[in-house]
């Protein structure tokens, strides 16, 4: 198991409850400095207190297990609207909200997310339902209109 996977498991262990989930873990190295960026979310939204609790617990476990070989900075936050939706769970929690979806072929569509299943999302685009496949190279962002 690599360092990223190990840290993801540690984060999952320290989430407040089953409504919380890991969105992404990034380890960025610049010279001899490392930054650890952890994104977490929850089915009903996340607050700063949950991020602080997770940050403290994860930091303590990383130190206790001596997982980082150099000094590092750790940031635990929620994904903002500028971060693409990346998991089915994120899509599900945003049903009813407007999305901007870029498909693998480069086609861009905006619409209200109405349904999510294992393979596709459904958008209401100008009062017509359209099914869009959830492809690996697709990106979807929340619209703040």
Automatic annotation (TrEMBL):
Q: What is its main location?
A: cytoplasm
Boundaries of each Ribosome maturation factor RimP N-terminal domain copy?
11-82
Q: Which domain of life is it from?
A: Bacteria
Q: Does the keyword Acetylation apply?
A: no
Can you cite a GO biological process for this protein? translation
Domain called Ribosome maturation factor RimP C-terminal: residue spans: 85-131
A cellular component annotation (GO) from this entry: cytosol
Tell me which UniProt keywords the record has, alphabetically. Cytoplasm, Ribosome biogenesis
Q: Its biological function?
A: Required for maturation of 30S ribosomal subunits.
The entry sums up its family as follows: Belongs to the RimP family.
Know the name of this protein? Answer: Ribosome maturation factor RimP
